[in-house]
Amino acid sequence: MAEEKKIGITVKKKDDFSEWYTQLIEQAELADVRYGIKGFVVYREWAQVTIEKMYRSMMDALDRKGHMPLCFPTLIHEKNFELEAEHVEGFTPDVFWVTQAGSEKLNEKYALRPTSETAFYQMYSLWLRSHRDLPYKRYQRASVFRAEKTKGTRPFLRGREFHWIETHNAFATHEDAYKQVLEDMEITREVLGEEFAIPHIFFERPQWDKFPGAVSTFAADALMGSGKVLQLPSTHLLGENFSKPFNVTYVAENGEQKYCHLTCYGPAISRIYGAMIALHSDDKGLRVPFNMAPLQVVIVPIPKEGADNKAILKKAEKLSKDLGKKYSVKIDDRDEYTPGWKYNYYELKGVPMRIEVGPRDLENGTVIIARRDTGKKELTKDPDVVKVVDKIAGEYTENLLKQADEGFEKNIVHSKSVEEIKKALSENKIASAGFCSIGMDGAKCAEKIDLTGGEVRGKRMDKEEKPKGNCVSCDKPAKLIVYVAKSY
Ligand SMILES: [Zn+2]
Predict the structure, then answer these.
(1) N or C end of the chain, less CB within 10 A?
(2) Ligand 1: distance of its center to the CA of 451 in Å?
């Protein structure tokens, strides 16, 4: 037998999340950081197969809600990019510019899109004419480029190129636009919450922390290891902030010319993938929801000297054929690796189920089914295999969600002072607290909270919460409850 390559993660997730994540990426062969341009990494096949499934889930959900896809150029003309003042101020420091073609310097500058409002809306102004054209709901799948300098890059979670879907929608009224924001939250709940099993809370972000150019921003935070939150999709009410400079108008029923109300929603699939694997994976390696797994069932034959190894392999092949009708299945009968090494390998790769077939199973008409979510092994009679696999497949993702969810709500601590917030954060918790305002007049109070190392994430959207007492910062009566957390 050839010498087996040593595999596995050598640190514990709870001891050193950052190193654990780095090793997970490397050992499970999800990305390679050796590409040679800072902040740009290669996504490898074991990640990309899952990412494609995630795209499909998200695009299916958008299609169901009446969006249609289109595809815009990667370059945005400088003069367009600069039309919305807050937007240009917010994004300019991070823009990559194209200034040269071949050996010739260009007469004009083009931005590599950091986001596409300024690309879409110049075209919307040409396309939209009448109230009959509205609502107009479109999306594109694309990669965007941001030369972020403030925080270190990390595969999937933070990079200078990321892969996303952006929707850009136009409506006749503010009410219609606001309904779209609620629908975006609903899509997030269905896709991220159920299909990707990522527990999250939607917040209305404070005014000082909104998307540049938006009227208001609503963003989902997921709680990651070590008590920090990660911002996942956000959806923005743009009001008339872009439709005015870009002249996106329509003629109302009464003949009046009006500005459209715009919204945009940006689920960054690559970042959501990073969050999903960081959340569900463990010290043995990768774990992903059942339908997102590149391989769902692996069958490992266990040959033995003197046993009928041909019959063992035949049994494995029959199982593979039966299960292959519904699931992605593979037999690993390589003889240069021991069964034990293969167990570790497929656990590292996050395959939800492993079926072991040995000489005794041949005699007894059984197999062993091991599941990756609980680590349990089940001795199963041959005629029951499909039934048991169906059952595990059916409960696997929900089980991952349950394990992740337990970590969320119990990590929220209600705090009555800035000191208490500081204490909660130091214990890797999220703090909730009474606060005066998430409008610009609350910005001073938020600065006091920033000193704790956490940030005001905003007002919770999934439930009404009545504050008691005073703002933790200024002692004026509290008007709402905000959440404070450290973030990635
Ligand atoms: Zn205050």
Answers:
(1) N
(2) 15
